[in-house]
Amino acid sequence: MGSLTIGAFARAARLSPKALRLYDELGLLRPARVDPVSGYRFYEPAQLERARLVAWLRRLGMPLARIRIVCELAPADAAREVAAYWARVEADTAARRDLAAFLIDQLQGRGDEHMTLAIRYAVRSDTGRVRPSNEDAAYAGARLLAVADGFGGEGRGAPASAAVIEALRPLDTDIPAGDLLNALDQAVHDADAALRGITRDDPSMEGVGSTLTALLWSGSRLGLVHIGDSRAYVLRDGELFQITHDHTHVQSLIDEGRLTPEEGASHPQRSLLLRALAGRGVAADLKLREARPGDRYLLCSDGLSAVVPLPAVQDTLAAAADPDDAVRRLVDLANDAGGPDNVTCVVADVVEGDGA
């Protein structure tokens, strides 16, 4: 088979001539040659494989800039890149699905039909066995739970985590369910501005920052905000589910299929953050969830999650008599395992009514 005109090539690749012209302009799929007189584009049959790959990736919704990267990779690396992209799409879709369900309820006038829930909660924070000071901070109230893990070295993370928690503290009040995510988003901006002020007022604090994981309740709805590697879990019907996604270098390698979770647990760079609050305007993850009576939520710094195996966390949460018992046992587990980092835990039980 000889060279194909743009029309013939478009039909074979199931792309439009207009798309082929765009891909040419972007350097994504150049024609084999262009007639110098007529300007007609001609393609070789061997280019069909790349053209079809581009078409498939476009149907997935992948941006053209990322498609260009995938097309230049070896097949195995390209497969990992597609897997990482799709994992992100599924996570984003799940978050949008929860928000859509909430909006549908609100627009159909069912927003008030959800039962009123309350929480019974406890918080405990410990320096651990190795660190000279505690750079974690936490808050637990009737409407708000939050954990922040400061960083910066030599104890400088403590003011950062404290500033983040202080920015969220005003949220511990009655907030309509429809305003949960907006309220959390604004609080994150306020926290980031506070960190920016710390470094501006004291140049020696340059480089400090903090993670943040927080839950905000309204009725049976809860808003989740998360950035960094602190975590949130829910124990529901005996099963423990992680409801946050770590923003770390190692987690990105796991997402891309370059590491297994088991390899990631012992990776030397497992604490390297890709996203955190540091006064530079980084966006946080925001999700809306439905709480149920009987749920037990855990928020923790990586002083727990990086040290205590998940089965032990699950068993402890399931066996603890109440939130206060749970946080005591979890912190003790981390310290019994060497306590290499500060450890902070917030546990809350979801109950019907006013929690009395």
Question: Can you walk through the features of this model?
Answer:
Keywords: DNA-binding. This is MerR family transcriptional regulator. It comes from Actinoallomurus iriomotensis. The structure is a single chain. This protein has 356 residues and is of the alpha+beta class. The protein folds into two domains: 4-72, Multidrug-efflux Transporter Regulator, Chain: A, Domain 2 (Orthogonal Bundle); 115-352, 4-Layer Sandwich (Phosphatase 2c, domain 1), CATH 3.60.40.10. 40% of the residues lie in helices and 22% in strands. It is built from twelve helices and 14 strands. It has helices at 6-13, 17-25, 48-59, 64-71, 75-107, 157-168, 180-201, 249-255, 261-265, 302-305, 310-319, 323-336; strands at 4-5, 33-34, 41-43, 117-126, 136-140, 144-151, 209-210, 212-218, 221-227, 231-236, 239-242, 285-290, 296-300, 343-352. Strands 5, 6, 7, 8, 9 and 12 form a six-stranded antiparallel sheet that branches. A hairpin with a 2-residue loop joins β8 (212-218) and β9 (221-227). α6 packs antiparallel against α7 (180-201). 39% of the residues are buried. The mean pLDDT is 89.
Output the keywords.
single chain; 356 residues; alpha+beta; Multidrug-efflux Transporter Regulator, Chain: A, Domain 2; Phosphatase 2c, domain 1; six-stranded antiparallel sheet; five-stranded antiparallel sheet; 12 helices; 40% helix; elongated; DNA-binding transcription factor activity; DNA-binding; DNA binding
- Indicate the structural class: alpha+beta
The gross shape turns out to be: elongated
Radius of gyration: 25 Å
Summarize the main sheet.
6 strands, antiparallel
Q: Which superfamily, in CATH terms, is the homologous superfamily of the largest domain?
A: PPM-type phosphatase domain
CATH topology of the largest domain: Phosphatase 2c, domain 1
End-to-end distance: 80 Å
Q: What is the β-strand count? A: 14
Mean pLDDT: 89
Strand coverage percent: 15-25%
Helix share of residues?
Answer: 40-55%
Low-confidence stretches: none
Number of helices: 12
